[in-house]
Amino acid sequence: MSGARVVWMVAKREIKTRMLTKANIISMTVMVVLIAVGAVVGNYFLHRDGEAPVLRIALAEEVADLRPDLEGSAEARGLTLELTTMTADEARAALDPDGDGDDEAPSAFLDGEPAAPRMLVATSPDGETADVVGAAVRSFATAQQIDELGGDPGAFAAAVAQAAPRVEAVGEPRNDQLDGAAFGVAIAMISLLFGALIGSGSMIAMGVVEEKTSRVVEILLAMIRPSQLLAGKILGIGVYGLFQILVLGGALALAALSLGVAGLDIDVGAALAWLVLWFLIGYTIYALLFGGFAALVSRQEDIGSVTTPLLFLLFIPFYATMFLVPSDPDGTLVRVLSQIPIFAPFMMPVRDAVGALQPWEMPLSVAIALATIPGLVWVAARVYQRGVLHTGGRMKLADALR
Amino acid sequence: MSELEIDHLFKSYGTVRALHDMTFTVRAGEIFGFVGSNGAGKTTTMRIMLGVLAADGGSVRWDGAELDLESRRHVGYMPEERGLYPKMKVGEQLRFLAGLHGMGPAEATAAVELWTDRLGVGDRRDDNVEKLSLGNQQRVQLAAALVHHPDVLVLDEPFSGLDPVAVDIMSTVLRERADAGVPVIFSSHQLDLVERLCDRVGIVQSGRMQALGTIDELRTTDRPQWLLEVDAPAQAVVAAAESVPGVRARVAPDQTGGVLVEQTAGTGADGGAEQAVLRAALALGPVRGFARVRPTLTDLFRDVVAQDKAVEPPPPPTVRRRFGRAGVAS
To answer: Nearest Cα to A128, choosing from A66, A60, A80?
Structure first.
């Protein structure tokens, strides 16, 4: 029987026993539902004000000349204007504050001289109406005056609209302003990555120790190699972790798209692709460490003593990314750190998102990380092989490596 | 010639010597009982046989070839510390193990059904292992050792914790496998069971094989014993028996009034001293009983342990072979 088949059988068991448990199916469903609910609620709040409110103004016949100016001024403010024509008496009835409060009632009535109309309101003018009407009257009066002076009101308006300075910079624009949205998405992605690495790392550690405490490892090792068992476990839990990250990351991406974040010029698809690549690399590195080191202990309650140092290896790069990258995304320290395999999975996606990467940096860090993996495989397999049949207290790392 | 050869195994844990020149052979179709006190080296030997531990020297051969990872797939193993995934269904777990042993899915399913039914846990196939009682978990563990129709069976303490019904099932299954030509080796502290079930027995003490052979061979002694019961004072019977040359006698320790007669010097073929003793006894009074006393395995075991304590352990060997190097001469 080929080694690959053995590894796959071990992996398949891991996937099956983890994916098909009731607890997993329920928790995944709950999380996806929560994300969907979040998207719907977010949509409601984001787009509640999306429809321009309708502004209703009533006019008397004599101020009909104000119509184009009112319409222009409402449009400039993003308001929908509904103009009606009525007499002053009708308007008094419609505006009566003790009346039946009709929804369709105008907020103001204009009559008199168009350049200085009377504005009839219920009790006091609301700001928006006063603003729109004021602007319309000013523009009407300006046009009237220009016309009287023999000018062209259209040309005047066009000239005023174009009167703006042209900005020219002496040097290149500097990169110290972060694109907030892109940075936000990148942080969300590495947080997901961080969570997935912690989750699958602990799952591997617990799986290794479970096999040791239940002693099932002894019958397994009577027929397969320790390295095959470790590889199968890492592969199986990796597939499961990737499934989780794709489902949750995909749900988050869909939610982001539906909330219109896509309009902010972020390529969510590319961000997800990088997330998957760095998950695979980061997962391989950390899984080997967790799997190998967990074999040093024999009881679930001792797991903490080996996983705590490894969790620090996850916390440090994660927080270093959060604190160092925003202030100095292309500084020397960040550049050097982001080439180190345990930092790269966190730093690279964020630096990429804020556009602080030279074209060679990403491929170099991927290559360095990939080159580290065979060495880690050797160390992890050695520690695992020595540790996995050791029972009793915690085995010293030095003993396992000797 | 299907033989399982355990050939000069050495193993130390730090300064503790676990195995010292452990050598024996289990033939096809034979049940071999592995007996010894706690820490004598039985489990270490079995773990080395299964490749779970590496020996410091010596080799394990099956059919003349080194037992390697591939041939170990055909071994059924029940470790001393039982091990199954607690949160996995019985049937699924056994199918997984059968698969690792190289069985296809259909074949594995059939074998799982066969053995779980046979061992009386067929109705628990869809339960998680942790839900089963310890005795039933033990049956599942045996099913795990048998599911791939192994060519060799190595069972460490298979009877511990079993109820009498399960012991009977287990005994029947072991005999059946042996009759099918499978060498079966198991360790046990239940010596009566070993005595009843095994074709050959090995008694280990301090990591070395102290006595090896069939029960009858082990019982064979050049100092045969008889229990003599005569209607006469015990001291008189002792005196009468000792009047025969080459015979020593003492009052049996079990207070039944019998006398244990031991032939200390050979008088040739059977029908020598005991006939003279019987005649002397008849002269004293009516003989109620005169029977050969055969040592039980327990007696033999006690002897071995006692002997071992009397003898100083020999110095460690100067030349140690590395595991796997001691190949078969071709």
So the answer is: A80
Measured between CB atoms, does A220 come within 8 Å of chain B? yes
Fold that domain A54-152 belongs to in CATH = D-Maltodextrin-Binding Protein; domain 2 (3.40.190)
Measured between alpha carbons, how far is B45 from A347 in angstroms, rounded to an integer?
52
b/e sequence B93-102, b meaning 16+ C-beta within 10 Å? bbbbbbbbbb
- Mean per-residue pLDDT, A339-351: 88
User: What would the mean pLDDT of A201-205 be, rounded to a whole number?
Assistant: 90
Round to whole Å and give the CA distance between A391 and B9.
Answer: 23
pLDDT higher at B204 or A54: B204
Distance, CA of B52 to CA of B36 (rounded, Å): 21
Measured distance CA(B128)–CA(B88) in Å, rounded: 5
Q: Length of chain A, please?
A: 402
Q: What is the pLDDT of residues A228-264, one digit of tens each?
A: 888 899 999 989 888 887 888 788 777 777 776 555 5
What pLDDT, in 10s, does the model give residues B61-112?
988 888 888 888 889 999 887 788 988 899 999 999 999 998 999 999 999 9
Instruction: Name the CA dihedral angle for B320, B207, A220, B147, rounded to a multiple of 10 degrees.
Output: 120
Average pLDDT over residues A283-301: 87
**What is the C-alpha separation between A251 and B13, in angstroms, rounded?**
55
CA dist., res. A347 & res. A320, Å (int)? 8
The confidence score (pLDDT) of residue A80 equals 81
- Using a CB–CB cut-off of 8 Å, the residues of B that contact A are 47, 50-53, 69, 72-73, 75, 77, 79, 81-88, 92, 96-97, 99-102, 144
Domain with CATH 3.40.190 in chain A: 54-152
3-state secondary structure of A232: helix
3-state secondary structure chain B: CCEEEEEEEEEEECCEEEEEEEEEEEECCCEEEEEECCCCCHHHHHHHHCCCCCCCEEEEEECCEECCHHHHCCEEEECCCCCCCCCCEHHHHHHHHHHHCCCCHHHHHHHHHHHHHHCCCHHHCCCEHHHCCHHHHHHHHHHHHHCCCCCEEEEECCCCCCCHHHHHHHHHHHHHHHHCCCCEEEECCCHHHHHHHCCEEEEEECCEEEEEECHHHHHCCCCCEEEEEECCCHHHHHHHHHCCCCEEEEECCCCCCCEEEEECCCCCCCCCHHHHHHHHHHHHCCEEEEEEECCCHHHHHHHHHHHHHHCCCCCCCCCCCCCCCCCCCC
Distance (Å, rounded) from C-alpha B146 to C-alpha B75?
A: 9
Q: How confident is the model at residue B315 (pLDDT cuts 50, 70, 90)?
A: very low
* Nearest-CB residue to B144 (from A211, A219, A221): A219
Per mean pLDDT, which range of A43-57, A98-112, B100-114, B164-178 is the poorest? A43-57
> Do A389 and B52 make contact, defined as CB atoms within 8 angstroms?
yes
Q: Of all residues in chain A, what percent carry a pLDDT higher than 90?
A: 6
Would you call A379 helix, strand, or coil by DSSP? helix
Report the gap between the CA of A388 and the closest CA in chain B (Å).
Answer: 10
Q: What angle do CA B274, B275, B276 make, to 5 degrees?
A: 90
> A20 at the B interface (CB within 8 A)?
no
Q: Token pair 């005595």 is at which residue?
A: B195
In sequence order, the 6+-apart residues with CB closer than 8 A to the CB of B47 are A218, B53, B79
């140690």: which residue's tokens? B320
Number of Cβ pairs < 8 A linking chain A and chain B: 58
Burial class from Cβ neighbours inside 10 Å (0-12, 13-18, 19+) for residue B128 reads middle
Q: Identify the pLDDT of residue A119.
A: 87
